[in-house]
Amino acid sequence: MPLPADTMQSLERLDTFQEAFDREEIPRWKRLFQKTDSLFLLILIIGLFSFGTFLLLLVNKTVKQSAEKKQQQASSGKKVNVLEISLGEFESMKTSRENPGYLSVIEYETTLSVEESMIGTMQNEREIYSRKKRLRSIVEFEINSASAQELNEPDLGSIRSSILMQMNKFLGDDSVNDVLFPHYVRFNLPATP
Predict the structure, then answer these.
(1) What are phi and psi of 14, to 5 degrees?
(2) What is the pLDDT, as a whole number, of residue 123?
(3) Spatial contact of 101 and 191, defined as CB atoms under 8 Å apart
(4) 113 forms bridges with which residues in the sheet?
(5) Measured distance CA(157)–CA(110) in Å, rounded
(6) Considering the chain, what is the average pLDDT of its residues?
(7) Continuous H helices in 90-146
(8) Whole-prediction pTM value?
């Protein structure tokens, strides 16, 4: 059974369009963009690259600002923030040199003052906590070996400087800025035989 003439004409027209289309060859890179999945992928890659570049520029700007701020603080002579790390409370008892028959009792708390910076703070704090027992023994030794005159100083200046020197020598750097005694009490008790 033959096809109607109108249908035959329509098929011939489609064949001519197909031949014309086949002759006109589309470059490969254009064919990639004709598919919506490939176009979406390209836009996603470009967007991620742009976002990553933006983040790098932002981080770089922040690091430069931080460095400039530190440099300004150093050049202006401003005090830098400090972190205080407690070594805990101590109690020391020994026979009083000034009053025989009495015990000299010293109760005190020791705190270390460490310069606060972005990277160094955590490192210094971890180092101090890992060596806390040795640092405590330095404090106890210096307090127990101090003379009565040094123990009676209002700010304990000579003891503090001696402890500071010993701690920085032990830690191997100048990470400790100061040694503080937020609580310090010294009194005598009668010794019982």
Answers:
(1) -60, -40
(2) 67
(3) yes
(4) 84, 178
(5) 14
(6) 79
(7) 120-130, 132-144
(8) 0.54
